Amino acid sequence: xxxxxxxxxxxxxxxxxxxxxxxxxxxxxxxxxxxxxxxxxxxxxxxxxxxxxxxxxxxxxxxxxxxxxxxxxxxxxxxxxxxxxxxxxxxxxxxxxxxxxxxxxxxxxxxxxxxxxxxxxxxxxxxxxxxxxxxxxxxxxxxxxxxxxxxxxxxxxxxxxxxxxxxxxxxxxxxxxxxxxxxxxxxxxxxxxxxxxxxxxxxxxxxxxxxxxxxxxxxxxxxxxxxxxxxxxxxxxxxxxxxxxxxxxxxxxxxxxxxxxxxxxxxxxxxxxxxxxxxxxxxxxxxxxxxxxxxxxxxxxxxxxxxxxxxxxxxxxxxxxxxxxxxxxxxxxxxxxxxxxxxxxxxxxxxxxxxxxxxxxxxxxxxxxxxxxxxxxxxxxxxxxxxxxxxxxxxxxxxxxxxx
Amino acid sequence: xxxxxxxxxxxxxxxxxxxxxxxxxxxxxxxxxxxxxxxxxxxxxxxxxxxxxxxxxxxxxxxxxxxxxxxxxxxxxxxxxxxxxxxxxxxxxxxxxxxxxxxxxxxxxxxxxxxxxxxxxxxxxxxxxxxxxxxxxxxxxxxxxxxxxxxxxxxxxxxxxxxxxxxxxxxxxxxxxxxxxxxxxxxxxxxxxxxxxxxxxxxxxxxxxxxxxxxxxxxxxxxxxxxxxxxxxxxxxxxxxxxxxxxxxxxxxxxxxxxxxxxxxxxxxxxxxxxxxxxxxxxxxxxxxxxxxxxxxxxxxxxxxxxxxxxxxxxxxxxxxxxxxxxxxxxxxxxxxxxxxxxxxxxxxxxxxxxxxxxxxxxxxxxxxxxxxxxxxxxxxxxxxxxxxxxxxxxxxxxxxxxx
Amino acid sequence: xxxxxxxxxxxxxxxxxxxxxxxxxxxxxxxxxxxxxxxxxxxxxxxxxxxxxxxxxxxxxxxxxxxxxxxxxxxxxxxxxxxxxxxxxxxxxxxxxxxxxxxxxxxxxxxxxxxxxxxxxxxxxxxxxxxxxxxxxxxxxxxxxxxxxxxxxxxxxxxxxxxxxxxxxxxxxxxxxxxxxxxxxxxxxxxxxxxxxxxxxxxxxxxxxxxxxxxxxxxxxxxxxxxxxxxxxxxxxxxxxxxxxxxxxxxxxxxxxxxxxxxxxxxxxxxxxxxxxxxxxxxxxxxxxxxxxxxxxxxxxxxxxxxxxxxxxxxxxxxxxxxxxxxxxxxxxxxxxxxxxxxxxxxxxxxxxxxxxxxxxxxxxxxxxxxxxxxxxxxxxxxxxxxxxxxxxxxxxxxxxxxx
Amino acid sequence: xxxxxxxxxxxxxxxxxxxxxxxxxxxxxxxxxxxxxxxxxxxxxxxxxxxxxxxxxxxxxxxxxxxxxxxxxxxxxxxxxxxxxxxxxxxxxxxxxxxxxxxxxxxxxxxxxxxxxxxxxxxxxxxxxxxxxxxxxxxxxxxxxxxxxxxxxxxxxxxxxxxxxxxxxxxxxxxxxxxxxxxxxxxxxxxxxxxxxxxxxxxxxxxxxxxxxxxxxxxxxxxxxxxxxxxxxxxxxxxxxxxxxxxxxxxxxxxxxxxxxxxxxxxxxxxxxxxxxxxxxxxxxxxxxxxxxxxxxxxxxxxxxxxxxxxxxxxxxxxxxxxxxxxxxxxxxxxxxxxxxxxxxxxxxxxxxxxxxxxxxxxxxxxxxxxxxxxxxxxxxxxxxxxxxxxxxxxxxxxxxxxx
Lengths: 404, 404, 404, 404
What we know:
Four copies of one chain form a homotetramer.
Chain A: H1 4-9, H2 17-27, H3 47-61, H4 75-80, H5 105-125, H6 130-159, E1 186-189, E2 192-196, E3 212-216, E4 219-222, H7 228-236, H8 248-257, E5 265-267, E6 273-277, E7 280-283, H9 295-304, H10 312-321, E8 333-339, E9 365-368, E10 385-387, E11 396-397, E12 401-403
Helix pairs in contact in A: 2-6, 3-5, 3-6, 8-9
């Protein structure tokens, strides 16, 4: 993020503000105010909250930081739509976001409109302000991140309704396939003293830097993501009943949940696999990448396949060396066997905005790539996504690796 | 309920169907679809669910029982809006009622309209059918019961929003006062071989009968309900810090919750008491009856006051003997020290409708009277309300009793 | 208890102090210090704790109340061995009693010996002190109550060891049989205005009085307790799979525990029923009374059998009217459908000793009679035992009742 | 471990079998059978269990693997004393180890004696069997690991007894001090392409290899461990009240536990710090290294001090480069900011013995060095200890690092 100044100085925003903001609204087209208020678990927020929170981000970190900040739209929003920025003060309980019938969706949409007007005025007034451009860019990246979460969370909310409602007839999941490569096809990646991390020539989050050297042994990386068909073979081979395939905490997770398949999968009376999607309940596509598995499931599958998960350094190095590997981006986030920890020399940004990433660097594992739900322009080789190892509700899958 | 046949035979419904049903809609006037979807805890249902469930009751127990039942409006509603009737089949999880954005409020209102039309047609076609009248009457009493719950539950839902929204400017809580009698004023009630339970000359739930004999010693009953002012004295005297005043389970409840006052009470910066009401946050009225206390708090207060709670037989006997005792009805439900158990000779009705009351006869205590939120015409001396001893969110207070 | 003075005044203790105390030691004969420290759940205390706590009771309520009390043996015991007497001060956490390796069993036995010497000296010095006799009698009754709990708790502790150890070759469970009467044999008991509660001519706990009038309708009471064979028929008929047989909370208990049989029952490879007993794992005796069932199981069985549980008033009235009914005492405690609540006019004793019973009068159901583990001389028609409806680890069974 | 063959082939065991085994018994000298049965939480096992489990390890992995294995001492021990080796079959529940009064301590000691005799006979019979020597060495290392756990666990067990018992008058904690270096004294460590991991010339666990290259930037490492005095300054500066110092999960841990100081610390009436030790409650030694802190506390302290935790590669590299740095070994385990994950090329050993380490490689952080409770001869630069970030009951502290 401290790299943003340079970039923005070179000539304004890399994104169209109005276009990014409009896409959030496009996502709720066809949904009711009731749909936008759903909260099915503490981890997943209501869509109305996402719409308000991303707006609050601009109001708090951009507008309120101006020399002559505009009047705060509604002081209560500061508490209600703060996600986790302790530096900003009191927050509303995460698990109770679904209890906010007030402000209404209509009021939140009006809040968005007012902030958009204020912000676009500021951008028009000070087109060369590179610090401003940095913060606005961060806000837009943040908005895009929440656009993916809106779909991820809505899918979970809807999955709890026995009516299994559909978001759209054409859902993002249907757009991707794991391709035709053999499950056993690997590409050899040379090792040595490599560099990973974001370059300074474009936007990146602070956690993607500093760019730094790592030593890698040569390795093999799967030519495509593991598919639903591959994963069915694992299940059929007793994958969920064999403790020797699982990490110890993973086996405990399996036992407690009596897990038998990825999240959202079910079998019909004829034992055919179906999956709940953003287009409702659908027959499972065996050629699509397996999705909604957690780290434990990914790791157990890899062990069963005589392989392993790549590290994040291996993944990033390969993504630059072999950018044509199928499904690196746009299919599923790919679990790595790297813990989410700071890179050597990492320094969080100063102030409340610095709470963005650093304080979450514990108890989470890194996912790389991007998914079918990731907005266009929000993918890059250095991007570090991260979730706890038990999380299933993200669009998360895996790609295998092996030692040479 | 088996008494209903006789009564209905004597000439139709004791209530106006359209009028009772309309009152449910009147309660949500001014609320948004988002408001009607709120569910703040498993015990409290969304208003939309109440509206649908009471309608489902008519569809399932009246219309579907006709010789030529109409087509079911939507088979999924049978699962979604069944509360606890195991005999009817699968149910949707109580704690997840707030996750039903579909059907929408609009669809539920349309469901109500269709069932109302069907039912009113049936009533018009068979005006002399006493079995039908019995079931419709039960359905209307059931609807009235849910009308009180709608207010009770909405109050809890709204209390979880930091904005503390108001339902109406004029709220039911404001309409009642505990009166002017001294806290220490008691009326002597003679004992002997008494009868309690519902007579057969009007509607009553099955749990109110059979009418039966009980032996009572003479006793004293408080002339009014305990007021907020009385309860403040208890708090000021360390009521919530003195274990000797509490039942053992009550003291554990106090300790775990760090309870210090009735639900919805808070103190402002000047230590003045405020209470969240259906009209929003309001200064506490010291003359109003104390409300939203559980059995433990009621019992501790009584012990502190050198008194005790009445039994339900004492309460009912007194309510018939001294019907002019202040606040028996329409202020707060009054905790008794009687467990909710079957009367001698009690038999639940046959079939699924018989699940109404009997199976809840454990782990609950009886409350008598009625509250400011009870619909007109839904109060009677034999009425047995019941909740677990820790429940606070009902409009529940207390009236003292003493031995002679 | 306030009746004790009269009784003791009439000539000393109804029990032999040394004999009652010696029986507690007899119960641990053959057990190791490790056995005596086991605590398998918060509800069940280590045997070492029982031995110390009953001694603490004499030290605290008898010796410390003397005009010239002896020096306290060890001040730390006051905290460690106080069960729940808030009036006495700080207590050690119930669930952590099993973490007290110090004091050792040897030290506890020495504590017993010292208190016994002090107490017997006092009794010898003041043979005519009726207040003293009252308190000592209470202490001995208390000790006897804990003697039953020692066996009850040890059975639970041992049941958690996969080795399924035996306490003795001849266990109390083996001594009783439900008799030969038909399951369907009932005795008619006349009703009317009856009296229940303890007479003043012998020891009783405060909760057994005051003796008072109740009105009873005539009813039928089963001639014997329900047997294991009877209960097997209930299980075979799908008793644990049919929600319509259960109270609502009972069905939730069944579902959460996936309960399928009484506590301690298991089936061998040939589907023969075995039960863990104080003599280890044994074939189930079909003629013995069913034991270790909770209120929910008792109530479901009764409903399945077309019967009901008696109330405690019915039970006590019948036990006096028909004392020869089989198995009233000495087999299993018999669940009643009465909540444990104060009798009319009940007043707890003054001071800390008054915490004995009154504050537990909520959320518990009454059991009547006595069990195979109850010490001789500790049974009487007015005795009120009480446990929460889900408790199974007591020696609890049932006897059926029906309306006439 | 696969390196063991070579080493053992070079001439027998690096440890004296009898001496290592005897030290386990020395640890329980002066303790009662009751002390040895305590289990204060699921993570901490009874000492009796440790004694039996380490013996079971020899019986199962050494004796039972012989061509002509001796008869199993007691088949039930196979279940009772298996810790987590799923490959070996059924296990007893970890949290219920404290419920095993049988076998008694005496029986466990006899079990040890029998296995020792069998094993020493085997060692005498086949002195040149390198595979045998490998397994026995692993068993002895395993025993030493449990010797540290015996002290760690006993400390926790005893801390739950209000009597605060002492294990010995002279406790291990008293033997070490953080030294006299300034808290701010750092040693510069050069970076570059380094190697870490165990060499093949002595015993190591499988998780310590393979030895492999890592790239390190030059850095500063604290000359001594952080002391109690240093940590008191952190507390005095509001360390436990300032969310900006904590990882997000760490702050949640602080809030839920209302943590205010390291485990076992308490303040007396004069606000002097005391600590519970294996010698009972003692005044806190400000010069001793801070101990019993978790990763969250270590990380927050480092942030407060303007420093950070070292990675495990940095620690190991420095420990070889600067072996005279104070307190690397024998004081406290030092938290690193490295997750416990496999080294490149890591392969678990085949068979059940391979469950030793690999399956725990998730949700844990690495600690390096060794503590005052670690047996002599059980420390080495490549040793990887690991615990979840919230664990406090180990002898864990920290050493600071900084970027150059």
